[in-house]
Amino acid sequence: MSQFTAGHHAVDELDSRHQLTAADRCDSCGAQAYIRVTMQSGELLFCAHHGAKFKEKLSPTALEWHDETSRLFESN
Ligand SMILES: [Zn+2]
After folding, report:
1. Which residue, 3, 22, 66, 67, shows the most beta carbons closer than 10 Å to its own?
2. Distance from the CA of 45 to the center of ligand 1, in angstroms?
3. Ligand 1 centroid to 61 CA: how many Å?
4. Collapsing DSSP states into helix, strand and coil, what is residue 64?
5. Residue 34 to residue 28: CA distance in whole angstroms
6. Which of 74, 76, 72 has the alpha carbon at shortest distance from 33?
């Protein structure tokens, strides 16, 4: 998983705004979303799996990449 590193502005918004909830669902598979991507055309929600899958493709044009996948590994 070394290629899945936090990008430019992924981490510093974790504990402030845009907290994703169980009601937020991945646009690709319907699982709980942990990543919200803001594009010029709108917002996309992804689970950890699809966020990682699409990050390389989308991140160059994303306005914001909000990543809460670290919550998956902090199980308290
Ligand atoms: Zn998904």
Report:
1. 67
2. 8
3. 20
4. strand
5. 13
6. 72
User: How far apart are the CA of 39 and the centre of ligand 1, in A?
Assistant: 18
Q: Residue 74: its pLDDT value, please? A: 72
Look at residues 49, 16, 14, 54 and name the one whose alpha carbon lies nearest to residue 37.
Answer: 54
Mean pLDDT, residues 19-27: 94
Count CB-CB contacts under 10 A for residue 37.
23
Going from N- to C-terminal start, the domains of the chain cover 20-76
Q: How far is the CA of 37 from the centre of ligand 1 (A)?
A: 13
What is the model's pLDDT at position 1? 46
What's the gap in Å between 27 CA and the centre of ligand 1?
7
Burial of 67: CB neighbours in 10 Å, binned 0-12, 13-18, 19+: buried
Residue 19: predicted pLDDT = 85
